[in-house]
């Protein structure tokens, strides 16, 4: 469990806080999305969770333990962090070295290092790139290496900040399928995203940030049921919501789920045709 209790963080004293009085709890096994317009505090929250930043006020707990004296290296045992830009976290000469670096720093035995490295490479589909120089890989391959590097430290939580930005539809699909597999295997996923269609498809819960404040925390369906709130937070309506809202006069109820929307439309087909 990861808990923020009344957390405030300011980058400097002359500016309003980037995160203000935020309380939230993320339980093991959840798939949570953090959404909100640019500059709303999403990345700052994830950096606070990772102890890359420390609260100006408030506390952060991991399984009831206050993390105030934890370093990012301590937190990396529990939380894998995948940055927005994979170039920011890739430094070694080969993909294998890159992925084994974290477990080495954590003091794993050499057998364990090789076991977790091979497993992470296999899971993320980069085993055939093991001896390549990471800087020459495509962005999507680098993303996979970044995730493998996080996974090799065998964390329970995985935080991904806009991992699919700039990827083509096919790569995006494969990447999200990978995340879904991790989630099914018991990992807790915290995904920062601007992609509302992706959010409604994969996340179970949404935290919406606005000007550093937590504007909403709840189910995906409840989040998109309130158009005023979406507007306030600068969130785009996902396609399923727009279509179901548009067909409301025909008796279609609001849904974020493609399958449920298709089912409703098929069930009403006679009426819609008429
Ligand atoms: N290193 C920094 N120094 C000073 N201010 C910063 C720094 N990083 C972020 N900020 C400010 O803190 C606020 C929150 O930024 P943050 O990056 O957390 O937002 P975000 O929601 O993740 O944005 P984006 O969607 O653009 O990534 C913004 O006003 C931003 O300008």
From TrEMBL:
<keyword id="KW-1278">Translocase</keyword>
<protein>
    <submittedName>
        <fullName>ABC transporter</fullName>
    </submittedName>
</protein>
<comment type="similarity">
    <text>Belongs to the ABC transporter superfamily.</text>
</comment>
<dbReference type="InterPro" id="IPR003593">
    <property type="entry name" value="AAA+_ATPase"/>
</dbReference>
<feature type="domain" description="ABC transporter">
    <location>
        <begin position="2"/>
        <end position="236"/>
    </location>
</feature>
<dbReference type="Pfam" id="PF00005">
    <property type="entry name" value="ABC_tran"/>
</dbReference>
<keyword id="KW-1003">Cell membrane</keyword>
<keyword id="KW-0813">Transport</keyword>
<dbReference type="GO" id="GO:0043190">
    <property type="term" value="C:ATP-binding cassette (ABC) transporter complex"/>
</dbReference>
<dbReference type="GO" id="GO:0042626">
    <property type="term" value="F:ATPase-coupled transmembrane transporter activity"/>
</dbReference>
<dbReference type="GO" id="GO:0016887">
    <property type="term" value="F:ATP hydrolysis activity"/>
</dbReference>
<keyword id="KW-0067">ATP-binding</keyword>
<keyword id="KW-0472">Membrane</keyword>
<dbReference type="GO" id="GO:0005524">
    <property type="term" value="F:ATP binding"/>
</dbReference>
<keyword id="KW-0547">Nucleotide-binding</keyword>
<dbReference type="InterPro" id="IPR050095">
    <property type="entry name" value="ECF_ABC_transporter_ATP-bd"/>
</dbReference>
<dbReference type="InterPro" id="IPR015856">
    <property type="entry name" value="ABC_transpr_CbiO/EcfA_su"/>
</dbReference>
<dbReference type="InterPro" id="IPR027417">
    <property type="entry name" value="P-loop_NTPase"/>
</dbReference>
<dbReference type="InterPro" id="IPR003439">
    <property type="entry name" value="ABC_transporter-like_ATP-bd"/>
</dbReference>
